[in-house]
């Protein structure tokens, strides 16, 4: 598969606002993400996972290097990339259906087409019956479903997800993971998913990109040899390949947490 996203020679520095020292967050990052791939990014706290995602989104400019989308340099945010954050970034004064329609309204999509698209994604994320509800009437998991549906409805080429399930309870997190897996199968979207949860990364990713401790560099790219159609938590509980891959990725991450010793 051809590279949908290409990261070349990426370095990012920033100034610590308290010490005024320059900090290198990422250094020497080279990475290809294939069209239609789900790439899960994991690593120790402070390794630059969210910074990498923000640069791909065009929300941060790299100090050095470049991001290419279909061979075109990324120089800022764009409708070809949709971002889902950890926080429930939906509009409190809009209903579920009007939140999902927000990007379509900005794109001036005609009302009949817009309504049809909203119905499709309401069904896809399991919110049928909640279309007229406001965010304060929803659980945390439902709010995040709305955020995912809104991003999908705008039809970006790439979905960038920054720990989107971190703020919900464990059971809801499992459910949302299974739904995202189903969405990946149904839409074929290219997805970059940042998480600190190794088990979640292996469950969702076609590959796991393990970043080293600060400054973040790519330590390993670990393929997950499990067909996406088999990825339910019930099935994976007895899947030796899942357990072996989880242990491999966890060992790589733990080595960084413990001081960068070889895994």
Which properties best describe this structure?
263 residues; alpha/beta; six-stranded mixed beta sheet; four-stranded antiparallel beta sheet; 24% strand
Provide structural commentary.
- The chain is α/β, with parallel strands linked by helices and 263 residues long.
- The protein is 36% helix and 24% strand.
- The chain is built from nine helices and ten strands.
- It has helices at residues 49-57, 96-100, 102-106, 111-124, 140-153, 170-187, 198-204, 233-236, 240-257; strands at 3-15, 22-34, 38-42, 64-69, 72-73, 81-84, 158-162, 190-194, 207-211, 218-223.
- It has a six-stranded mixed sheet, sandwiched between helices.
- A hairpin with a 6-residue loop joins β9 and β10 (218-223).
- α4 packs across α5 and α7 packs across α9 (240-257).
- The longest helix is centred in the last third of the chain and has 18 residues, at 170-187.
Brief overview, please?
It contains nine helices and ten strands.
SSE map:
Blueprint: E1 3-15, E2 22-34, E3 38-42, H1 49-57, E4 64-69, E5 72-73, E6 81-84, H2 96-100, H3 102-106, H4 111-124, H5 140-153, E7 158-162, H6 170-187, E8 190-194, H7 198-204, E9 207-211, E10 218-223, H8 233-236, H9 240-257
Parallel strand pairs: 3-8, 3-9, 6-7, 7-8
Antiparallel strand pairs: 1-2, 1-4, 4-5, 9-10
Helix pairs in contact: 4-5, 7-9
**What order do the helices and strands follow?**
EEEHEEEHHHHEHEHEEHH
Largest sheet: 6 strands, mixed
Q: How far is the N terminus from the C terminus?
A: 30 Å
Which regions contain 5 or more consecutive residues with pLDDT less than 50? none
User: What gross morphology would you assign?
Assistant: globular
Share of helical residues: 25-40%
Number of strands: 10
Strand arrangement within the widest β-sheet reads: 6-7-8-3-9-10
Mean pLDDT: 89
Q: Beta-strand percentage?
A: 15-25%
Helix count, DSSP H or I runs of 4 or more residues: 9
Helix/strand-derived category reads alpha/beta
Radius of gyration: 19 Å
């Amino acid at each position: 598969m051809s590279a949908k996203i290409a990261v070349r020679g990426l370095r990012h520095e920033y100034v610590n606002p308290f010490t005024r020292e320059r900090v290198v967050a990422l250094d020497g990052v080279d990475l290809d993400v294939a069209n239609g791939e789900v790439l899960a990014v994991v690593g120790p706290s402070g390794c630059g996972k969210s910074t990498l995602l923000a640069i791909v989104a065009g929300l941060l400019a790299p100090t050095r290097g470049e991001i290419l989308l279909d061979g075109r340099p990324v120089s800022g945010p764009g409708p070809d990339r949709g971002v889902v954050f950890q926080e429930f970034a939906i509009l409190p004064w809009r209903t579920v259906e009007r939140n999902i329609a927000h990007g379509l309204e900005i794109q001036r999509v005609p009302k009949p087409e817009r309504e049809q698209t909203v119905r499709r994604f309401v069904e896809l994320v399991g919110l049928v019956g909640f279309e007229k509800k406001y965010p304060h009437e929803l659980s945390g998991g439902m709010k995040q479903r709305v955020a995912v549906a809104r991003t999908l409805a705008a039809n970006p080429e790439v979905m960038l997800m920054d720990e989107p399930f971190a703020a919900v309870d464990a059971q809801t997190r499992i459910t949302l993971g299974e739904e995202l897996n189903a969405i990946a199968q149904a839409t074929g979207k290219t997805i970059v998913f940042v998480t600190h949860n190794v088990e979640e990364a292996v469950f969702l990713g076609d590959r796991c990109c393990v970043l080293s401790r600060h400054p973040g560099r790519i330590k390993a790219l670990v393929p997950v040899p499990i067909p996406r159609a088999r990825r339910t938590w019930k099935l994976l509980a007895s899947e030796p390949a899942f357990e072996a891959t989880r242990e491999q990725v966890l060992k790589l991450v733990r080595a960084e947490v413990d001081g960068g010793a070889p895994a």
